[in-house]
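Thanks for the sequence, V.! I ran Transferase right away. Repeating your input here for the record:
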Amino acid sequence: MDDINVVEVLTTVNDASELGRHVWIRAGSCLQNVQVADDCFIGFKCDLQFTSVGASSMFATGARCLGTAQAPVQIAENVWLGAKATVTAGVSIGAGAVIAAGALVTADVPADAIVVGRPARVIAQRTVVEDGLPSPAPVLAKVRDRARQGLPSMLDRSTQSVPRLKALNPDTATWDISDEALIDAELRGGASVEIARDCILIGRSSRQGGMSQLGGIELGTGARLAPGVVIEAAGGVTIGAFSELAEGVTIVASTHDHSFRSLPWEEAPVRIGSRCVIGEGAILVGPLSIGDGAVIKPYSVVIRDVLENTVVHGVVQLMEIQE
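Predicted structure:
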């Protein structure tokens, strides 16, 4: 284990890539021909190709930078790239820019711009308190310490066996949990929950060393998570009875205050009612509440409350780039 960086399981970094100091790369990411400066965070299942990343930049789950040898992607310092945002070949992102979840960036972005949409457009300029650049370094010390203690960790799959998980979370005794899921979370809820392969679940309450008293995941009786679901529940996620999350759904229960240069973390709980259907590839970013019986269409980006028994497409529809 590196004394400076943390590179989690199921992540690949090829020999043509270089990492600075205090870099945290979460599970399932792939870096090919990427240069990452100091104090950067790269979330779960990110895909970075032929990209340079400036210091103190932060990438949320599923972010993609699809540069090529002829047209690399240039990310300046202190950039925030939201969940499943995509930057196409040859694009440069200016220092301090904020790219919204699900955005598709096809043109250069100015410094401190806030962009949204597909294709992305500038909607505002950041006005920030200059309180210093963010760094994952303080959290990395805690991550390494958990691993040294043999606690559940994304650095060692052997610490995440299903029997051990169930022993630590008594409510999960009747749950059907795949051995191929990655879970470092406080879990509670009803009976007969299903968690499929390649799911990633994280988040604990402050009672178990998490960042918020709301942290952790509550899954109601009969809830089903299809393959590839990612739930980041540091700010708390509740999913009601018999609700279904389709393949590749991402839920993020936290946000960052863009009015500070340091991008401080904030809890943003997500509450999903009973008998909801969350379509394939959808992104839910808290704080938000989804009423009972609601249907979220596939590849929707949802950032606002949803009324019960309604069908919504979110603020934008993700369309997969054909590779």
